[in-house]
Each structure stands twice: as structure tokens, then as C-alpha cells.
Amino acid sequence: MIVLSHKIQIKNPTYKQEQYFRQACGTSRFAYNWGLAEWKKQHEAGKKTTAIAIRTAFNAIKPVDAPMVFNVTKCAAEQAFSDLGTAFKRFFKHIGGYPRFKKRGVHDSFYLSNDHLLKNVQIAITKKKN
Given this model, what pLDDT does residue 3 score? Predict the structure, then answer.
């Protein structure tokens, strides 16, 4: 199996871009930490859960409890739950340790799918021409 990906680092973002990236990283971190806390809570209650169930619960509460999620791409929050599911799979297979909460400023990142990247690039090009 071959996995292709692109890791992009922007050297000199504008102030507006930097603010957006910070918000996207914060949203991703918030979703991951919320999911980890919810997973622990459900585990202590004796329930078995999955990343998909946690994501569904998050989607139900985000309009009221986390409206900042709507300010950035949906990929930032969605991928956080996939990453959490992967972390728990590794833990249960004894490959990795128990997932930990993410801290601000430590390896901040977020995911952006290709279709969203192309859409955002096209919007930027369209706005530039006008």
C-alpha cells in the first residue's frame, strides 16, 4: 500500500492567514481533547465506544458548545477524531501508549483534504483577479 501526502509549511503568511491557521490548529486540538475526555468518560461508565461515535456526539453539541468550529475548515475537527481512533487502535495493539491531551504550541497542525485545498486556492485566485 502506498500512501501519498503533502506536508506544506508556509514561510511568511500574512496576518490574516496566520490567524486562520492558529484557529484551525486550535479547533483541531480542541476536538481531539474533547474526544479524548469523552472517550475516558464513556469508558469509566462501562461503555465501549469508537471514534465515529465520539465524532457524532461532538457534531451534536458543537452548535451550542463549540461554535468556533464553524470558523475554519471542517477537516480540522474531523481529522482529529480519526487521529484519536488511530491512537486508541495503536494503544489496544500495544504499539503505543495511552493517548494524551494535546497542548497548545506543541506540534500544532491541522489536516486539509485536497478537495478543500483546491477549493480554497480557486477562491483565492478568483478574489485576486477582481
Answer: 66
